[in-house]
């Protein structure tokens, strides 16, 4: 009878009362489970859903061999043992909690000996996160984005109009400058042509002024030459007549040399 009472006392001490933990959907939660590794040395641990049986874990979620996690026992990547296993911290972390995660969980630390296992139970309450704040935030964000987009559109339109107006003004200014340059070039060409024409006309006038004097000189020269020829021819004619007359004595005609 005393042994049975002692056994029940040990079982009562080894089992802790259920701890209630509350969390909202979408959040992460950690269920704390630790043991004195310096006293017991590294021990195997398992986590399961529901009430823990006399040995092992029902609906096992994850377990360790005392040094590392047994990956083949991990049923989901959302279940993590993020504590220091070499310090006896085998707390379970559930990532991105959903409503289906609500319920009872158990942690069993397998201590050598009959009925020596250390067991911890937890009740996880999952509350639905309020959606009004999220909706309001989304609406505000959407409104801000729409306003920003509309403002950006107006600014873009204004910039386009300003750019177009500036380009038109620049084109008009450039066309006006081109017209002025063409006019200046035309005036310069006209001046050059007029100057060349004046030079040609002046040179022709000089030539015409020199032409009468040369003609007079040539006429005088021609006249003097003609008179000389006439006198010479007259002298020759007198001499020939004289020779004909003097030849009457001989009764023969002599030919002129």
TrEMBL record:
Q: Which domain of life does the protein's organism represent?
A: Eukaryota
Subcellular compartments: Membrane
Q: What is this protein called?
A: Ig-like domain-containing protein
The record's Pfam families line, in alphabetical order, gives:
V-set (PF07686)
Q: Where is the Ig-like domain?
A: 9-110
Region described as Disordered: spans on this chain: 128-148
Record membrane topology: Single-pass type I membrane protein
Q: Where are the transmembrane segments?
A: 177-201
Keywords from UniProt, A to Z, are: Disulfide bond, Glycoprotein, Immunoglobulin domain, Membrane, Signal, Transmembrane, Transmembrane helix
One GO molecular function term? phosphatidylserine binding
Family membership: Belongs to the immunoglobulin superfamily. TIM family.
What are the Low complexity biased-composition ranges? 131-147
Q: What GO CC terms are in its UniProt record?
A: membrane
Task: List the signal peptide residues.
Answer: 1-16
Q: Name one GO biological process term.
A: cytoskeletal rearrangement involved in phagocytosis, engulfment
Source species:
Etheostoma spectabile
Where this protein primarily resides, as one coarse class?
Answer: membrane
């Amino acid at each position: 009878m005393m042994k049975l009472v002692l056994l029940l006392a040990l079982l009562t001490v080894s089992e802790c009362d259920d701890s209630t933990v509350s969390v909202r959907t979408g959040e992460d939660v950690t269920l704390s489970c630790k043991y004195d590794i310096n006293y017991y040395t590294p021990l195997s641990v398992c986590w399961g859903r529901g009430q823990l049986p006399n040995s092992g874990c029902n609906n096992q979620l994850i377990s360790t061999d005392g040094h590392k996690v047994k990956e083949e026992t991990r049923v989901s990547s959302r279940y993590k043992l993020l504590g220091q296993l070499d310090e006896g911290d085998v707390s379970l972390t559930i990532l991105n909690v959903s409503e289906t995660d609500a319920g009872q969980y158990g942690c069993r630390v397998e201590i050598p000996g009959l009925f020596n296992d250390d067991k911890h139970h937890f009740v996880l309450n999952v509350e639905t996160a309020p959606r009004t704040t999220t909706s309001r935030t989304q609406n505000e964000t959407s409104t801000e984005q729409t306003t920003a987009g509309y403002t950006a559109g107006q600014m873009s339109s204004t910039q386009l109009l300003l750019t177009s107006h500036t380009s038109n003004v620049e084109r008009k200014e450039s066309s006006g400058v081109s017209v002025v340059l063409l006019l200046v070039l035309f005036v310069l060409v006209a001046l050059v042509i007029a100057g060349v024409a004046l030079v040609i006309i002046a040179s022709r006038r000089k030539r015409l002024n020199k032409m009468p004097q040369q003609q007079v000189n040539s006429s005088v020269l021609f006249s003097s030459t003609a008179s000389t020829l006439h006198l010479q021819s007259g002298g020759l004619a007198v001499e020939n007549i004289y020779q004909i007359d003097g030849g009457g004595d001989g009764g023969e005609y002599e030919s002129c040399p």
